Amino acid sequence: MKIKKIAALALAAILMLCFSACGESGSPDNMLKVATSPDFAPMAFIDTSKKGQDQYVGFDIMLAKYIAEEMGKELVIQPMSFEACTTAVSMGSVDMAISGFSWRQDREDNFNLSDFYYAGDNESQQVVITLKENAGKFNSPEDFKGVKIGAQTASLQESLCQEQLPDAEIVTIGDLGTGLLQLKNGDFECMAVAFGQAEVFMANDESVALCGFEFEVDEKYTANVVVMKKGADDLTAQVNEILGKAYDSGVYGEWYKQAKELAMSATAN
């Protein structure tokens, strides 16, 4: 009997340690797992002066933190490629993806999308960058005939290239930072990016310049959405309520300003 009592007490102690550990690190029920592609400044990128979860910064990260706080959950950022973000949502390995996603019909068909949220000029202006020596070379759609142009896979920029630069040769890229290196390496002559990203590239690399061409952007593409699994209606309603609160409180402008300032800093990657 004494041995059984000791064993029971030992088991109870182990369980208490387990529950304590879970409370410190967060259990699946109180975690909000968010997929993002941290290569898209000022929306989501890496601060090299920080480590772990703290290294992920930008407007979308601020938004993710806000949503998690409003839901009373612990935010867990899961970094991955832009294309992989939606795959992770489909598979249910994350709760949502927040990574500068614009509205697209295929996303509407395959996912639950939140109401729009607004991040400065990052979606309303879509531009093309090139090396400085080619700055005046590409001013109209006709100038892109037979020209290789880089665009991120499954992005708004890829769609815009397909629609408005039909005679260009689109080279899809996974990571925008790698894309910049490819541009400088001559793998393609131009690269389609959001204006906010272009500003960051030009601020950190003097060899990069804007082309004279800018895409026409339909109003439905000028904001961003949170991507959730199809059928996650309760979660979507909750997120929309939180987005409404954020919009009404006027924090978007300040977040975007802070994100752009940080993206221009020496520790931004």
Short overview:
By secondary structure, the chain is an alpha/beta fold. The chain contains nine helices and twelve strands.
Overview of this protein structure:
The protein is of the alpha/beta class and 269 residues long. The chain has nine helices and twelve strands. The chain has helices at residues 2-25, 59-71, 82-91, 105-110, 156-164, 176-185, 195-204, 233-249, 251-263, and strands at 31-36, 45-46, 56-57, 74-79, 96-97, 111-113, 126-131, 148-152, 169-173, 190-194, 208-214, 227-229. The radius of gyration is 22 Å and the shape is globular. The termini are far apart. 40% of the residues are buried.
Question: Keywords for this structure?
Answer:
single chain; 12 strands; alpha/beta; 9 helices; 5-stranded mixed beta sheet; globular; disordered N terminus; 269 residues
